Amino acid sequence: MAAERGARRLLSTPSFWLRCLLLLGHWALGAAAARSDSSPQSPGSSIRTFTPFYFLAEPVDTLSVRGSSVVLNCSAYSESSPKIEWKKDGTFLNLVSDDRRQLLPDGSLFISNVVHSKHNKPDEGYYQCVATVESLGTIVSRTAKLTVAGLPRFASQPEPSSVYAGNSAVLNCEVNADLAPFVRWERNREPLPLDGRVIKLPSGTLVVSNATEGDGGLYRCIVGSGGPPKYSDEAELKVLPDPGVTSDVVFLKQPSSLVRVVGQSAVLPCVAAGLPLPTIRWMKNGEALGTESSERLVLLAGGCLEISDVTEDDAGTYSCIADNGNETIEAQAELTVQAQPEFLKQPTNIYAHESMDIIFECEVTGKPTPTVKWVKNGDMVIPSDYFKIVKEHNLQVLGLVKSDEGFYQCIAENDVGNAQAGAQLIILEHDVAIPTLPPTSLTSATTDHLAPATAGPLPSAPRDVVASLVSTRFIKLTWRTPASDPQGDNLTYSVFYTKEGVARERVENTSRPGEMQVTIQNLMPETVYVFRVMAQNKHGSGESSAPLHVETQPEVQLPGPAPNLRAYATSPTSITVTWETPLSGNGEIQNYKLYYMEKGTDKEQDVDVSSHSHTINGLKKYTEYSFRVVAYNKHGPGVSTQDVAVQTLSDVPSAAPQNLSLEVRNSKSIMIHWQPPPPATQNGKITGYKIRYRKSSRKSDVTETLVTGTQLSQLIEGLDRGTEYNFRVAALTVNGTGPATDWLSAETFESDLDETRVPEVPSSLHVRPLVTSIVVSWTPPENQNIVVRGYAIGYGIGSPHAQTIKVDYKQRYYTIENLDPSSHYVITLKAFNNVGEGIPLYESAVTRPHTDTSEVDLFVINAPYTPVPDPTPMMPPVGVQASILSHDTIRVTWADNSLPKHQKITDSRYYTVRWKTNIPANTKYKNANATTLSYLVTGLKANTLYEFSVMVTKGRRSSTWSMTAHGTTFELVPTSPPKDVTVVSKEGKPRTIIVNWQPPSEANGKITGYIIYYSTDVNAEIHDWVIEPVVGNRLTHQIQELTLDTPYYFKIQARNSKGMGPMSEAVQFRTPKASGSAGKGSRMPDLGPDYKPPMSGSNSPHGSPTSPLDSNMLLVIIVSVGVITIVVVVIIAIFCTRRTTSHQKKKRAACKSVNGSHKYKGNSKDVKPPDLWIHHERLELKPIDKSPDPNPIMTDTPIPRNSQDVTPADNSMDGNIHQRRNSYRGHESEDSMSTLAGRRGMRPKMMMPFDSQPPQQSVRNTPSTDTMPASSSQTCCTDHQDPEGATSSSYLASSQEEDSGQSLPTAHVRPSHPLKSFAVPAIPPPGPPTYDPALPSTPLLSQQALNHHVHAVKTASIGTLGRSRPPVPVVVPSAPEVQETTRMLEDSESTYEPDELTKEMAHLEGLMKDLNAITTA
């Protein structure tokens, strides 16, 4: 019921029906696109669907005997009942008048009383079932062979024999193969029971193993195949007692070569006799067979081997070995396994248009390799000019015609059996778009027909179609654009062509839009072809050009292609190519040109050959090449052969493995790591690696270990304690072993130490400063039971974290080079192991000055058993480069200046590569060793910056770290979904929800966008969810117009430049229930986009409109308040002009001097007159339009108390007033009111709704006639940007109590409501300024004040005066107190002259006219 209610709510929402209308519109457009512009759609132009038509059961090979009954199964499925018929040996059977053969209701063939004789075999043969559906087509089944067993004939019969007790005996009884299953045995004329000791082989031979006295008697075999049984001769088997002497081992039954089909059982007989009794064991291809551990391999009586459920892997040479301790004999047999044909790729259904070329694909496997033939509607497809077999198995149909429709079947057949698979071809009318198509079913020349068309004008016929080039086997056509579209940049063209007099037409498409030429290939010489060209645009195909008849040139006497081109590899670097003389040589062949090219390159090489074979040497090992041959005669080059591809043979690797490293695990084991040789040097598939190791002492034995497969590490165990070992690794292919790496040494620990914790602090640290270096020496930690794998030395001026160097655990000295003289260095030493770094030990030292010439002394005696190292350090590697290969792989390369110029490493040095990323900041370095001048760093994070450095180590000497190289891995699709997905309901908007989330933790690149999916059904398919796209820099989104009291499910998916990441888990949210008031979730009426949110006050109950009487009262109050306020303002202005004192003039002069080089022409012209501001403490607007504001916020806004020095602008007031009046009346009143309010410092408290959505318009500083240049002084005047763009306009207050002056910004003003000027300003929330330079601005008065911030306040303002609107109730504010007004007047610095007051009065008169216009309206 809940689901039903939710469905009803969904159906009741307007958005649901809007989506339905949109879908209906799309459907209508699609239907229109499928029709022609000029004519209604014909009945035949609708898209027909593929009809399921296939066999449920097919006949199988059957063995029968004379006189029995046989059923050959056949059943076909179709929507309408198919007609079933049968073929025998390719000819239809007439079953109506046949007494013995009849058709069963399901389509099977029943044969009663099978007839079979030496000269009459009417029932034996090959049967095939044929199913037909009228007006649809015909399909045929696989072919089944019915075999009838002949009369029994004995190839061998049992003979009298004797056997020693415990030995084995064999009694032969071999008959024709089809009767072998019908053989049975008798002993003493009684049926012989068979068991594990006495068995019958598939040939009929009887084997008795471990003979006892009870096995003696008269044996005979019987063949019963439905008729009277046939008996063999009787033979006596005697069981003799063990004589106690030895005798030779002989085979009583040897294995013989056998052919079996996959899935059958194979029995390889092997019975031997001798004294002592021999045992039998089996080998396959020289390897012992473990019959005990296999379920499919069973040893039968006497030692015969049975293999059940044979597979192709079972094929091979089997050896039976009989051994009695004194003598061993062996016999071999070959098991050949065949496989019935199987389809790797079956044909698929195809839609096409007439004149198209299509390909039915069919890929089969089997052993022997199957042959393929094609059948169309039950009839064999005979290859011709238009039906071709391509790529051995595929059927290509060129130039389709309507009669080509039907069912096509691929039939694969080999010696074992046959199989069939089919597909349907439907040819659509040209005005019907092809819905779907397998990508390989159309040839490349015809795929342009797939684009669906839309309604619109079609192009006219292309003009001036001519054959610009005519050859023997190709014609080049060119044309001009249609008259209907002279540009033709977006037109594609189809060229239809056929032989003259042939109805089957073919098509060739241009390769790109706007191309106006096509070359038609593979034509016949001296043949007339008819061409026509048709243009297509996005609406469909246009008119066809007039037919053009062109005849190809006569054949030049050039050679044809060389037949039987073959290529085979003769060595890893050579390939031999052979071919034969062209069938159409057209004269004597002078020579051949052999072309060859490495796969994956575009550089073809050639060689001249005079014979029919050539061997190309110097090729790359294990690399694929393609070859083709062109024959030359006196006329020139002939037709090239098709390419043949062959791969050179593999060889041993030509390079050693890379990045060999050793890790001592404990006192008896060392772990070896390596990387494969470079791909170009592998020379084949790497099958394994050979590890050789030995003790470092002289004349020690070398031990070898083989690692198979792609394993790249090996743990060597069983080593001696405290012993140094050398290791090297070589790669293997099937051809042998490649070169090995250089020897790398490591020493096992003296004892098995603890590595479950970090090492303790080193026991001592000593430093000896020199001029540009410091010699560091130390002793190991006192606790010798914890593994120490090395020491980390950190150093730097004032901090030890500037540089870090790691040395071997056996090292006790290190010289820090390249230091600054006379500098204070802090040095730290830490021991580390695989768990981490231990506690550091600190020391400091000051390097000596340059003038210090004291002897460099490197001998610090601390460790008596450690030799003093070479004082000269290694030079660090140079030219370190990081090459990005993928999102997780970077190749680091470098050069070593201490090597010869050819940079070949001949000693035992190795390099240590370290890398890290700075995110997070405390990331530790990772290290790896390399023995070459490059290293492949894998396992990195995507889109992450890494730094790399390299050091070289040779013996006890190491270099410092090289200069760092940086590389950023490539981006990858996000691998984690957005996290922390939350859904909340919007306050006051129950149909609106807000979705919040955080970016994916594994973004793997810059997030460019998000997709929000939501649905009422969490189990719906993802394409049924509603989608909301969001830009990548947003982490919140509103979704509106949801259904009340309904559970919704939300998922979010992030995307970057590489694609889409995974979706988050579904988050459920139920929208709130509806309530009675609009504030609790009921929908507001749709009042239009210009509606502004209502302000607090007394709205009419339930949103009812105000009565006409109240409206008139409201206007009277507005006019009264306006008149009173204007009079008060005029009095105050006059009073202010007469209160200017000399002290105030000095202050103003000081401020002007600080402000800069403003030059004033006179007091009267430079001062901005006061504008008018009508103050309302409780002004309310009735909701008239639907607010775009989703969440109005009521803000209590006090206006600043006092005014400081207001610096006037240079512009004349006349221009300002004229500009404002002409631009928009509402702006004028707003500007004047806001400016005066700022100057007078009035502070009534007001309530104003704020727009919580991102501002559509923002406040910015804009040069205008009302704006003076900003002062460079921070004391008087500085620029200040409006913190929030006002939706309608901005209130600018020019005075506050703070001590910083700001230049007032201008505001973007857009009329939106008739009552715009009577909104109440509010102070915006603090925040950074927002600018929108794209929007036009209407400037407010730019003012400068001393040392205080300016606030912008959102207001409404008067809009179009002529618009009808309901009256608005106005509450008259209380006037400010006298003391406060007096104080403000005393603080004012503005002086107004009489002419300025005259202009001001004219401005106020204009305002009064506006108010009168409001009253009249």
Topology:
Elements: H1 2-12, H2 14-33, E1 53-57, E2 62-65, E3 70-72, E4 75-78, E5 83-88, E6 91-92, E7 101-103, E8 109-111, E9 125-133, E10 137-149, E11 154-156, E12 161-164, E13 169-171, E14 174-175, E15 183-187, E16 190-191, E17 198-200, E18 206-208, E19 217-223, E20 230-231, E21 235-240, E22 247-253, E23 258-261, E24 266-268, E25 271-275, E26 279-284, E27 287-288, E28 297-299, E29 305-307, E30 316-323, E31 328-345, E32 350-353, E33 358-360, E34 363-367, E35 371-376, E36 379-380, E37 387-390, E38 394-397, E39 406-413, E40 418-428, E41 463-470, E42 475-480, E43 492-499, E44 506-509, E45 517-520, E46 528-537, E47 540-544, E48 548-551, E49 566-571, E50 574-578, E51 591-598, E52 605-609, E53 613-616, E54 624-633, E55 636-637, E56 644-647, E57 658-664, E58 670-675, E59 688-695, E60 703-708, E61 713-716, E62 724-733, E63 736-740, E64 744-747, E65 762-769, E66 774-781, E67 790-797, E68 803-808, E69 813-816, E70 824-832, E71 841-846, E72 878-884, E73 890-895, E74 910-917, E75 926-930, E76 934-937, E77 945-954, E78 957-958, ...
Parallel strand pairs: 2-10, 12-21, 23-31, 32-40, 91-93
Antiparallel strand pairs: 1-4, 3-8, 5-6, 5-9, 7-8, 9-10, 11-14, 13-18, 15-16, 15-19, 17-18, 19-20, 19-21, 22-25, 24-29, 26-27, 26-30, 28-29, 30-31, 31-34, 33-38, 35-36, 35-39, 37-38, 39-40, 41-42, 42-45, 43-44, 43-46, 46-47, 46-48, 49-50, 50-53, 51-52, 51-54, 54-55, 54-56, 57-58, 58-61, 59-60, ...
